[in-house]
Design goal:
alpha+beta, 5-stranded mixed beta sheet
Length: 457
Amino acid sequence: MNRTEMEMSGPSVSRHSRTVKRKRWGGLRQQWKLLGLFEIDQQHEFYSLTCMMKEGLFAAVQNTIDNPLPDELCEDDYKFEVTQIHKDFRMETYAGPVFASLRRSLGMTEKRYQQSLSSEGSYLQFISNSKSKADFFLTNDKRFFLKTQSKREVRFLLTNLRNYMEHLQKYPHSLLVKFLGVHRIKIAHQRMKYFIVMQSVFYPDDRITARYDIKGCEVSRWTAPAPEGSQIIVVLKDLNFEGQFIQLDQQRPWLLRQVEIDTAFLQTLNVLDYSLLLAHQPLHQDELSQTLSFATLIMRTKKSVNATSSPTHAASPTVPGVVAEEDSTLLSAELNCAATQCHTTEMHSGNGGTDSTSLEGDQIEQPSRMGTESADLQEFQAQNRRLLPNFKNPLHVIDGSEHRYFIGIIDIFTVYGFKKRLEHWWKRLRYPQQAFSTVSPPAYCHRLCQWVQDHTK
């Protein structure tokens, strides 16, 4: 019996059915909460909603495909709204041309984006330990996050969208999470839902061994780790990271500077309580060598991204850090191919950014010389090892001496208004001499930068 039939059968029957459904779902939710991530199948509470999301997103992206973007965005593009009517719902898309422009700057084709959002595989739900009441979904290939947002949060993002776009254009290697779409779905007899689509910071996650949500403070910043040897996904917090370091060597100055730039931008928006997401995985044995040619590195890194794998239909469970050893000898033709592809897809990104880490204007050696270890090549390699191939702007990836790190700044919607100021003074009384999250934007910015300074080598 569907929702409409329940409502037609009478108020008492409807209330009883909803109560039974809530109790049944509550029991399942307690079990699933232990897993952290699970597939939204036909028995899931959000199955109908996510199916509608997929259908609506397919049509929304198709509208962008059918109406090519202009060369330059105009003011109307930031206010552009499209409403598409479907059988059981309607979907509204906000500032579609702007987000399509951002996706293009990231090297995504609309077809590929559409396929990821609307694949036959079910969405995945992530049970977060966040205090937020938002629902978190992942596309089946884990490339994109979908998160429900309040009307206020969506309005804040759209109001500041131009500033956000200008920041990403100026600093194309920004750590800020990449917002790729803002939508509202209205289903009959239900409250409308706003949601955003984001690039997942933790992609590709096949070999990630630990995940952290960092705010630079200590109050309520501890999470019980998953049992040793389990496949449970737990996002740890600041106090769990104590005694550890992000070991980046040559990449450290770049990271410190970029965190300063991004948090200073968030300070201008008068926001706080954002998080630095951090994850790491061990480098492959051949990635540990700093004497590899850049072409070899590209070939090896590409093997970390398996776009055809399915997280919910894998033949065997993924064990972090366990990879099949492959023949380390690459044919000369493969090296040349890798060098040419790298040169084409990354060196001529054309994003026009002024970030000092941008690849625009750099020169790469001819393929026949890729195996040489000149000082120029080593410097280029050290600066750009964090970049994955086929993306004009990087994923949130930085390679250190022993680990590959995934780093991004998320949750940028909390404005330091009257309620947050009251909360700040209340917490000062409750937690004297302790660091808590609710502080002024300048203090929050400084503290997070200091945390990165203290926890990197």
